[in-house]
Every structure is written in C-alpha cells, then in structure tokens.
Specification:
Oligomer: single chain
CATH architecture of the largest domain: 3-Layer(aba) Sandwich
Strand order of the largest sheet: 5-4-1-6-7-8
Distance between the termini: 13 Å
Shape: elongated
Number of strands: 8
CATH superfamily of the largest domain: HAD superfamily/HAD-like
Strand content: 5-15%
Number of helices: 10
Structural class: alpha/beta
Length: 259
C-alpha cells in the first residue's frame, strides 16, 4: 500500500498556458528569448551591463550557454544552476560579474515572464487535495535551474502548501534520474521505497530513477514528453495514466488506510 507520494513539477502538476504551443518539456522554445531579453534590459538598467552590450549578441550568448549547460547537466546528472550560467555569460562578454544578490535579482527578472505563462494542469490541485485528505505525505522533486522560481510558481498556483519536502535540483546540485535526487526527497520519511509513489511525465528522469530505487513509478502522459520515444522500449512504469482524474481513480485502491 502507498503511504507517500513524490511529484515531478513541470508538465506533471503545472504547464505552459494552453494558448502557447511548446515543443519542449522545459518550454524553452517559447520563453527563452523573451526571458533573456528582459534580463538583458534589467542588467542594463542596473548598470551591470553597458546598454550597448545588452543587445542580440548577449541574448544569443546567454541562450546558448543555458542550452549547453542544460544538455551537460542531463548527461552528467549534476545540475548547473541559472546563476552559474548567467555569471558565465557575463564573464564571456568581459563584464565584471556582480555579487550573488545582484545575480539573484537579475534571475527573478528573467523568470518573471515565464512565471506568468504557467498554469496548474487540469485536476492537479484536486489530486493534491485528494491525497492530503487521505493522510498521504507529499513531496515535490523537480529538475529546474532555479529553486526560488519553482517555489514562486508553486505558491502562485496554490500548490506550495501541500509539499514537505520541496526539492529542486538547483538547490541540491543533482538532477533526476540520479539516486541522490530521489533520496533528498525520501530522507524526510522513514518509509520503505515500495510504499512511495513517484509521479512524473518523463520516462528517463522520473520513471527510470524511481524504478532503480524500487519506488512505485507512475507515468503521467497528459503532456507528451519529447524525450519519451527513445525510452519506451526499455523503461516501463508500474502504472501509466493520461489525466489527473485517472490518476486519482487508480490511486484510490492503492493508498494505505488506517485500520
């Protein structure tokens, strides 16, 4: 019987506003440029980046660095956070890298546009309330390059209060499917692995990592994950569901009940 549940965040609980079409799990194809342009303007306004340096060359440089670091992090399992990527872009441009507080403020300006594009997926909040009512502890385990961004989004879509712990790869330095990422969430509970569900949209990041640790893996296919076709023949979830409504129906008989 399941006694706790870990949720992926992006494309499992939240997603891009349906009016915007993205081919990327991380929405980078539709938000990267406007986010980076806003960040460049912010840096220029703060006197960190000379106005003449805040144009297309810097925007393209930071976008390229962010994408390269994303691919490197996926290959190594070591997260490269957004602060590191921004500092690298400034250094490459010959700009003095400011202190951490200034970098964090710049990243808040960067992510502000993306935050406004995110909505709760249909039925997601209802699923969390359903599990909370049944006494099931919940955690978030998200691959993301900025922890405060994920926390702000979770608060805005009225989900943050459901989760303890709330684990983001940028904060712990490792990404799913690395075992260390899952253990960071599991450490809050003294429970056998088989009694914890892992629910996510990615076969590689969520399901493979969960399977290797013996968690009860649940693949949510509501939003197709672009990386899944490469793994369908080799990574198998314990359960697959196409919606939050189906998730609740299938979880009901599996949940631990006090006798």
């Amino acid at each position: 019987m399941l006694r706790a549940a870990i949720f992926d965040f992006g494309n499992t609980l939240i997603g891009l506003d349906p009016s915007m079409t993205s081919t990327r799990t991380d929405y980078a194809d539709v938000v990267a440029r406007p986010c980076t342009e806003r960040l460049a303007r912010h840096l220029a306004q703060k006197g960190i980046l000379p106005p003449e340096e805040a144009g297309e060359e810097f925007v393209a440089r930071l976008m390229d660095i962010r994408e390269r670091n994303r691919l490197t992090a996926d290959q190594t399992g070591r997260e490269i956070d957004a602060t590191t990527s921004l500092a690298e872009a400034l250094d490459d441009a010959g700009i003095r890298v400011p202190g951490m507080a200034a970098l964090k403020a710049a990243l808040r300006a960067y992510f502000a546009y993306e935050e406004g594009c995110i909505v709760a997926l249909p039925g997601a909040v209802k699923t969390l309330a359903f599990l909370r009512k049944r006494g099931i502890p919940l955690a978030v385990l998200s691959n993301a390059t900025d922890g405060p961004y994920v926390a702000r989004v979770a608060k805005r879509v009225k989900m943050r209060r459901y989760f303890d712990p709330f684990v983001v790869s940028a904060d712990i330095g490792v990404r799913k499917p690395r075992a260390e990422a899952f253990r960071a969430a599991l450490a809050a509970w003294s429970l056998p692995a088989e009694s914890v569900a892992m629910i996510g949209d990615s076969l590689f990041h969520d399901i493979d990592g969960a399977n290797r640790l013996g968690l009860y893996s649940i693949h949510l296919t509501l939003i197709p994950n672009a990386g899944d076709p490469a793994h369908r023949g080799t990574i198998k979830p314990r359960l697959a569901v196409a919606s939050h409504e189906e998730l609740r129906e299938r979880l009901e008989p599996l949940l631990y009940k006090e006798t």
